[in-house]
Amino acid sequence: RPRRRHHDQVLVQQPAPALTTVELLHEDLVVVSPPGAEGHVPGRPMRIADLEGRPLVMFRHGYDLRELTVAACRTEGFEPSFTVEGGEMDAVLGFVRAGLGVAVVPSMVATRAGRDLRVTALAPPGLRRTIGLAHRSDVAPPRAARELMRVLLRTLPGGAARDREA
Prior knowledge:
Elements: E1 10-12, E2 19-33, E3 55-59, H1 64-75, E4 81-87, H2 89-97, E5 103-106, H3 107-110, E6 118-121, E7 128-136, H4 143-155, H5 160-165
Parallel strand pairs: 3-4
Antiparallel strand pairs: 1-7, 2-5, 2-6, 2-7
GO molecular function: DNA binding; DNA-binding transcription factor activity
Organism: Streptomyces solincola
Domain LysR substrate-binding: 15-155
């Protein structure tokens, strides 16, 4: 959260009441697994319910991907089973590569994770997260911060700016 005179803008995943937020990017989440993982047909989307009973590699508490995944599993009527908890993105991908389980990650991360992971889309409605740029509501952002926002909105692939034009 920005504090007086410390931050002009911050990237956020959830809107906060004291902040003005501009959505930058809507990102689909996918399941990554080791190439030889059993229990799913390659090329076919996976349902959240298909994660029941599968070992999950999970992010630390407070990480938005953890909250989204756990909430989706609970909506389907089950508690996810974690084999490893507490990692950041690189650690989670490493644990999946080592065969410790599967993980739900942003598609942008999965496509750059390498060929040693199988990437499976989630069946509709799937899971998405939104990344935004925020600044304090009671202070106008400086010119440089406004320019950063303009450039990001114009250039981010699949960004919120494109969604608004559609």
